[in-house]
Amino acid sequence: MKLVALPGEAWRAMALNGLRTGLTMLGMVIGVGAVVLMLAVGDGARHTVNEQIRAMGSNLFMILSGASTSSGVRMGSGTKPTITIADAEALAKLPSLDGVAPVQSQTAQLAYGASNWSAQVYGVTPEFLRVRDWALEAGQGISDTDVRSAARAVVLGQVVKKELFGVDDPVGQTVRIKNLPFTVVGVAVGKGQSLSGRDQDDVAFVPLTTAQSKLFGVPFPGTVGFIMARAKSSELMDEAEAEIRQALRQRHRLAERDSDDFTVRNLSSTAETAATTARILTVMLGTIASISLVVGGIGIMNIMLVSVTERTREIGVRMAVGARRRDILLQFLLEAVLICGIGGTVGVLVGIGGAWLVSDLAGMTVVVSGTAILLAFAFSAATGIFFGYYPAHKAAQLQPVEALRYE
Amino acid sequence: MADAPLIRVERLCKQYQVPGGQPVPVLHDVDLEIGAGELVAIMGPSGSGKSTFMNILGCLDTPTAGHYRLQGRDVAGLSADELAALRNRLIGFVFQGFNLLRRVTAEDNVALPLLYAGTPHAERSRRARALLERVGIGGHARALPNQMSGGQQQRVAIARALACEPALILADEPTGNLDTHTSGEIMDLFTQLNREQGLTVVIVTHEADVARYARRLVRFVDGRVVYDGEVPA
């Protein structure tokens, strides 16, 4: 019964010192707001990275041909055509992989009516879109029949579709690639930027056989530009890489002392680095914001100590009329917790507002998570109890007679 | 213990410990009994120990030695919370400076002891209004202390002292901040409460005019009782 009355007493004391209470609360508002905002920005960054990773496809390997050496000058990865379609077929049998797609790609000019556009054209098998987790927006993908018959079929990426067709439906239309007519059979969904900043949608897909025999030609029959492969799970990445390497060395008849004549790139490691960076960013921002919360808490302690000193007589009067130590302790503690609670609530709103502003003005992805809000709020309440306890305890330990005599 | 006096003080001593110095004695071997229903004035020059004595009677301070029995019960061994409960139930304080909570209405000031007694809100409000009525300022329930005269504020303080229906009213220089006329009114109120409700009232004062309202006078000098008897005319 007594406890029910105490919030009223605490509230009254706060209301009597409106400005001071407001300023103290402001410290809490800024602290909690900062935590919510910073976590939202950090989570947003992580979310963006995760999106990019998902867009790129997960657990991917890119297997490139080795480097050729011309008059002592080494030419870099992919210059010596050692990777073949047969290699891809062999890799498809590896137990740790669940998808292998040989690819031949090159930049080519595409034209439709009066518009034309230059894009990366990928010669692919049906496996490719599956390995990349790439869905279709309209029509269908490159089929086995297309590959077998070297059909002049093309699937357009979003950018190419927009540049050539605008808002029109391209499926069924004919585009010219390097002046050869191709029928548009499908349109791939947008994937956005890759982690390296390349626009993944500025592409067109044609059957691998068509690309090799009709568009680009191949330096050596049976070779391909590169192979995309996907491991069954992220845990199997290391095992898969070893299996690929072993299988290719065997197929290419490389002796023990020979170095690889191919390169296996783990695309996920880049993604993991980015994800780790984003995680560190979140923790760092959260830490910085927490410091402002602690500063706000010290502000509360400061004000509460002043308040206790200032209201010593009042405490004396309360004790004289029968307030127990616990009543005084709870009243002051409650005051601190109320300041934190209200400040925390406003802070959460300010944080959400700030996050919205950041996403609107800076165009950044921010994610305001319930966990972050709960965390900030719980932390602010804890701050109130932690920093409010000492002044409240000090008030409760006053001797009634001394408190009454205090001028 | 039914026949025990309301207040019984035996060989009461109080010393103040000054940090790094000799203890300063304030009260020496004070023996005093005050029965229920008495109206006692305590007088004495400044520094005679009368306020200290009053604080001990009010359980705001504890004696260094000796015994203080309130309603036959020795308060020496009581905890801070037990003392708080005693103050709440048995004792009503009236101070020279009124000691009302600023920016809190008369009604809420009066209700403060009831708050700590655990009385429900509606009952608190009702009792506070009735008490203000009884001390003659029923129309000022919503007024703040700084909107009232000194006499009115002291009446609020008296109403607050009466809130938990105590057995004992302790008034420390209750008229010290008031003019002669208002002092008379406040003292009339005390005598009325004493006479009509049998309330025990102990008033510390240094004004002979005020002491005249009492029926018994106790005079302190240098921490000792030097006179205890009739109020000289």
Can you describe this structure?
The complex is a heterodimer of chains A (407) and B (233). Chain A has 407 residues and is of the alpha+beta class. Chain A folds into 2 domains: 2-52 and 273-405, no CATH class; 81-260, no CATH class. Helices cover 55% and strands 18% of the residues of chain A. Chain A contains 13 helices and 12 strands. Chain A has helices at residues 2-16, 18-56, 85-91, 127-131, 144-148, 158-165, 208-215, 237-251, 267-310, 312-320, 325-361, 370-396, 400-405; strands at residues 60-65, 69-70, 73-74, 97-112, 115-124, 136-139, 153-156, 174-177, 180-188, 203-207, 226-231, 262-266. In chain A, a hairpin with a 2-residue loop joins strand 2 (69-70) and strand 3. Chain A starts with a helix and ends with a helix. The model of chain A has no long low-confidence stretch (mean pLDDT 85). Chain B is an alpha/beta fold and 233 residues long. Chain B has one domain (7-227): Rossmann fold, CATH 3.40.50.300. Chain B contains 7 helices and 10 strands. In chain B, strands 6-7-8-3-9-10 form a 6-stranded mixed sheet, sandwiched between helices. Chain B has a 4-stranded antiparallel sheet with strand order 2-1-4-5, with helices on one face. In chain B, strand 9 and strand 10 (224-229) form a beta hairpin. In chain B, helix 5 (150-162) runs parallel beside helix 6 (180-197). The radius of gyration of chain B is 18 Å and the shape is globular. Classes of the chains: A alpha+beta (407), B alpha/beta (233). The interface between A and B is medium-sized, with 24 and 30 residues.
